[in-house]
Amino acid sequence: MVHYRRLQVKGGIYFFTVALQDRKSTLLTQYIRVLQKSWKSVQVKRPFKTIAYVILPDHFHAVWQLPEDDNDFPTRLRLIKRQFTKNVVVMNSVFSKNKRNEYNIWQKRYWEHMIRDERDYENHINYIHYNPIKHKYVKRTRDWPYSSFMKFVNQGIYKLNWSDNIYKDYIDYDAE
């Protein structure tokens, strides 16, 4: 069995990518309220600060800061996934179980990265907020409802038109 080595630092700031098994699924946005409730419930029981996030139909990205005396992000992610699964299965019985009697909703692994410095922090926050454009869900960041972008606008960190010209050569919508 492969044992993944994760850098776990008390009070650390981490970037995460957590995905569904079916990358064509729309489960996370279809059941956005269930995901939000699961997230908040875990946050109450095992505190952490959500600095930035974006929820897409089949995956989410987040930057969290853990409490100064705690480095256990794996349990937090596992609990969010478990609670979301439990509640969605009750609402929709189409999900199958695998040989280990687990529902086939989430990918087993997730991507985690400890933020190293201010530039790394800024790059990951920008990546999170630009992600709906990258995946061609919207043309402007402000048009995606499931992210922390507007919080950053209200705090004066971003301008409302932040994404209007950024990476303008990256995606050409008219070419499709």
Question: What's the short version?
Answer:
The protein has 176 residues and is of the alpha+beta class.
| CATH superfamily (homologous) name of one domain | Transposase IS200-like
Q: Summarize the biggest pleated sheet.
A: 4 strands, antiparallel
> How does the helix and strand content classify structurally?
alpha+beta
Strand content: 5-15%
- The rounded distance between the terminal residues' Cα atoms is 44 Å
Overall helicity: 25-40%
Give the overall shape, derived from the CA principal axes: globular
CATH architecture field of one domain: 2-Layer Sandwich
What is the succession of H and E elements? EHHEEHEHH
Counting DSSP H or I runs of 4 or more residues, the number of helices is: 5
In CATH terms, what is the fold-level topology of one domain? Alpha-Beta Plaits
What is the CATH first-level class name of one domain?
Alpha Beta
What is the mean pLDDT?
89
Radius of gyration: 17 Å
Number of strands: 4
How are strands sequenced across the largest beta sheet?
Answer: 2-3-1-4
Low-pLDDT segments: 169-176
